[in-house]
Amino acid sequence: xxxxxxxxxxxxxxxxxWMHELPEGEAEAQGHASRPEEVQSVAFDxxxxxxxxxxxxxxxxxxxxxxxxxxxxxxAGLEATLVARGFLEARVDAAQIMFDAxxxxxxxxxxxxGAEFHVRGVRVVGAAERxxxxxxxxxxxxxxxxxxxxxxxxxxxxxxxxxKARAVAVTLAPDAETASVDVVLSAN
Length: 188
Hints:
The chain is an alpha/beta fold. It has helices spanning 2-21, 24-30, 51-56, 68-84, 129-132, 145-161; strands at 39-45, 91-92, 96-99, 105-112, 118-125, 168-175, 180-187. β6 and β7 form a beta hairpin.
């Protein structure tokens, strides 16, 4: 057993010396040296984040070169995704970029999702009461963009089918203290 340990130490030492003795160009070829400003990773710094959904909106990819326009678009897309999920006060900081010795870039977005907002009340303006029953957005529901859009679309479709073709606009009145929002659907 002792002979195996000594043998392993000798092999490891020899391999280490061999790597140190390689000419500089060959050592880099042996490793995974990155191009200067090549994106090595994109990470999120925040708690309770929908990571898979956030990753799906990123345009910055590992292996590509850093692109300021893409990073700005990623920041806006990440924030919009969180807002659409009901985090109306979500904030995404500008990308923080760290570089390793070879110039590889490690990108991190600091994310503060804030509270998830819920519907406090729903009011329909400009439509008859019998048409408003189609709106299923209820008090206590998460104030996500898709739920609000489904309510707007349902009312617009109902009015169109009844021959009262009108556009339906949505107004949100968020209350940050209670993390709630009042939704007003206006048929014009």
